[in-house]
């Protein structure tokens, strides 16, 4: 008996299709996954003991453990072997997605330049939206981030500067208020940070790299000033130019597979 579990495959009425009956473990995993996604289970919550779950779902121990393995693979639970406590819930994290996205982009032989072009397609829209409705908390958050960048630049902490620079783009999208665009940028952030950290010393000589960092801080500061002033046209144009110049500096016709191998 596996109760209250959805076994439908979404096929249209009358459609000719081979119906695959889900395995018991898959049905149990679906049930627990649904509770996690719908917020019934929170980060760190402990699932009931195995014996209780076996009774609840009317399944065998091997089927339950197979369900656990499915959820572990999806990083939705953590099971400590030998522990008397139950499996712990782990909510979906963007880091897991970005890591897999990096593998996918490398395997697909996507060019480095594509990643920077993606930024150019996304960020000017958010900059305009922020400038149309400038808010003090958003501006304060952006100024806090550029202060970190300036400190890393002044201290010649190049790798830290590159990581913070990639993160600034995510913060920009976060305060922009569009959750989907923020998610996409978080995925790109990890890939860009990997690339820039590896090639930070290959961009130019030390003095030129310092000038580039200083110019970057100045450009970002100007963006924030324009957003705060509510000058949407100027802010969008400035950021579009900034991203275009960044793409020229860091973009490459090499693939991510080549540069991250």
From TrEMBL:
Matching entries from CDD domains are given as:
WHTH_GntR (cd07377)
Which PROSITE patterns does the annotation name?
Answer: HTH_GNTR
Q: Which UniProt keywords apply?
A: DNA-binding, Transcription, Transcription regulation
Q: Which residues form the HTH gntR-type domain?
A: 22-92
Q: Name one GO molecular function term.
A: DNA binding
Asked if the Swiss-Prot or TrEMBL record annotates the protein with the keyword Transcription, the reply is yes
InterPro entries cross-referenced by the UniProt entry: GntR_C, TF_FadR/GntR_C, Tscrpt_reg_HTH_GntR, WH-like_DNA-bd_sf, WH_DNA-bd_sf
Q: Mind telling me which PANTHER family this protein's record contains?
A: TRANSCRIPTIONAL REGULATOR, GNTR FAMILY, UXU OPERON TRANSCRIPTIONAL REGULATOR
Full protein name: GntR family transcriptional regulator
Which species is this UniProt entry from?
Pontixanthobacter aquaemixtae
């Amino acid at each position: 008996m596996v109760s209250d579990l959805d076994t439908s495959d979404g096929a249209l009425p009358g459609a000719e299709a081979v119906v695959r009956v889900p395995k018991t473990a898959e049905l149990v995993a679906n049930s627990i996954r649904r509770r996690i996604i719908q917020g019934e289970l929170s980060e760190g919550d402990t699932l009931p003991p195995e014996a209780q779950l076996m009774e609840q779902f009317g399944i065998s121990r091997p089927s339950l453990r197979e369900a656990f393995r499915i959820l572990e693979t999806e990083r939705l639970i953590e099971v400590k072997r030998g522990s008397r406590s139950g499996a712990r819930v782990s909510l979906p994290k963007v880091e897991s997605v970005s890591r897999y996205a990096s593998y996918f982009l490398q395997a697909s032989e996507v060019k480095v330049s594509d990643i920077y072009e993606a930024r150019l397609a996304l960020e000017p829209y958010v900059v305009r939206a922020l400038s149309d409705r400038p808010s003090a908390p958003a501006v304060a958050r952006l100024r806090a981030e550029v202060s970190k960048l300036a400190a890393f630049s002044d201290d010649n902490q190049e790798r830290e500067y590159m990581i913070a620079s990639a993160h600034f783009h995510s913060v920009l999208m976060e305060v922009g208020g569009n959750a989907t665009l923020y998610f996409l940028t978080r995925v790109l952030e990890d890939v860009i940070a990997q690339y820039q950290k590896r090639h930070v010393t290959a961009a130019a000589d030390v003095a030129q790299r310092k000038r580039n960092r200083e110019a970057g801080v100045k450009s970002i500061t100007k963006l924030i000033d324009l957003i705060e002033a509510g000058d949407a046209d100027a802010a969008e144009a400035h950021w579009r130019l900034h991203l275009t110049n960044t793409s020229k500096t860091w973009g490459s016709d090499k693939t991510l597979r080549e540069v991250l191998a």
